[in-house]
Amino acid sequence: MFLAGFGAAGLIIAIVAIIVMVLVFIVSRIRKCPSDKILVVYGKVGKNADGSNVSAACIHGGAKFVYPFVQAYQYMDLTPLSISVDLTAALSRQNIRIDVPSRFTVGISTEPSIMMNAAERLLGLHLDEIQELAKDIIFGQLRLVIATMDIEEINTNRDKFLEAVSDNVETELKKIGLRLINVNVTDINDDSGYIDALGKEAAAKAINDAKKSVAEKNRDGSIGEANAMRDQRVSVATANATAIAGENQSLADISKTNASRRETEAESLRRATAAEKIAAAKALEEAYVAEQLAEAARAAREKASLEADVIVKSEIDKQKKVIEAEAIAEQFRRQAKGEADGIYSKMEAEARGTFQVLSKQAQGFKALVEAAGNNSDSAVQYLISQKLETLVGIQVEAIKNLKFDNITVWDGGSNADGKTQTANFASGLMKSIPPMSDLFKMTGMELPSFLGNEIKKEAVKEVVVETKKAPVKVAKKTK
């Protein structure tokens, strides 16, 4: 019984322990998001409306259960970043370069769509890396805004300038998940002195307006005072003309003195005004000179750009010609190789044909020797006998076509052997062709007996020689 009770208690303890472990595990997987951070849960977090996987789930505030094995999490810091942007030599719409030192304050946005951009592009980056990335974007957009505005507009209408900068910069920062918190432009300067000239011109105008106003008020006061004095003097003069006679003289002197004083003041005012106008004109002249220098610099830059384009184009044409020459050389090489291969194939075919002919001739001669009872001499004689007609024809053709225009023979009668000179000439002409038996002897063979023996030489008694134009004239010598 005791053991049974102990076993039931142990089972209950084990179940409770398992439940506690499960609860501890569940609690350990719940992640709370502080107010100054964004909780990014990534992994298998769901699907979009088109069926594609959601890249991450961004949570600002609250808590989220992170499933083990299929999900992970990271935090992104919402601490604002203060970025000092000391932009120098930015080109305005008037082609005048200005310096615009400023400070921008940015931070990761908590808007849902922009938080997703931050999760996709900034997750895992440190604050200094995010600051450098934002700084590059701000530099580019600030230069773009300055290039679309005049210096007067930037200097006098700061609200419009800051609004344009904020719109452009924030639009680009949202693409990477950031938002623009504040923009502070400390000062605007330029190396050409254009802004200083504008300030001097405005100051000179304000001073001139103030002096003009003072002079006008003084004039009105003097006129009113003079009128009052005149009325007073007229009234007194009417009552006591004699007493006023001396006073009138005094008033005349006073009037002259006042006139001299006003002339002096007017001359002083004229000189001051002229000096101020001269200073303003000089400032404008310097501004015009600065603009001319800027235009000259721009023309030089355009000229350099044009020269660079021409040089690059020439280099491209040169490379193109080199490539075309190499292609032509390659084409000639291939053509030459093809011709060489064709000649080789032709010569190889001729060699194979010659080899086949000689092989067939050798086989035929071998069969002829076997038919002659393996007697090679008889076979050779047979072959020669087949060529006798051809050889005789060649001998006849040797003198057949000899043409003599005219032959004159001085015949002195018969010789000791009974032959005339004419007969000896014709006989010698026929003997110039070697007989058949001599041909066989020159080749080291004997004429076969079935062709007959050598015919003895007989005297030629009479020869008639035909010529092309006339018969041979024979003159006999008389005793």
Instruction: Summarize the main sheet.
Output: 4 strands, antiparallel
Terminal Cα span? 189 Å
Structural class: alpha+beta
CA-based gyration radius: 66 Å
Enumerate the spans where pLDDT stays under 50 for 5 or more consecutive residues: 455-479
Number of domains as seen in the coordinates: 4
Series of secondary-structure elements, N-terminal to C-terminal: HEEEEEEEHHHHEEHHHHEHHE
Q: How many β-strand stretches? A: 11
Oligomer: single chain
| Shape estimate | elongated
Number of helices: 11
Mean pLDDT: 76
Helix content: 55-70%
As a percent range, the share of strand residues is 5-15%
Any overview of this molecule?
- With 479 residues, the chain is α+β, with helices and mostly antiparallel strands.
- The chain folds into 4 domains: 24-78, no CATH class; 80-191, 2-Layer Sandwich (Tetrahydropterin Synthase, Chain A), CATH 3.30.479.30; 197-317; 391-476, no CATH class.
- It has helices at residues 2-28, 112-121, 127-147, 151-156, 158-174, 194-239, 241-371, 376-386, 388-400, 421-431, 436-442; strands at 30-32, 37-43, 56-59, 63-65, 71-77, 81-91, 97-108, 178-185, 189-190, 408-411, 473-476.
- Mean pLDDT is 76; it is low at 455-479.
Give a short summary of the structure.
This protein has 479 residues and is α+β, with helices and mostly antiparallel strands. It is 63% helix and 14% strand. The protein has four domains: 24-78, no CATH class; 80-191, Band 7 domain (Tetrahydropterin Synthase, Chain A, 2-Layer Sandwich); 197-317; 391-476, no CATH class.
Features:
single chain, 479 residues, alpha+beta, Tetrahydropterin Synthase, Chain A, 4 domains, four-stranded antiparallel beta sheet, three-stranded antiparallel beta sheet, 11 helices, 14% strand, elongated, disordered C terminus
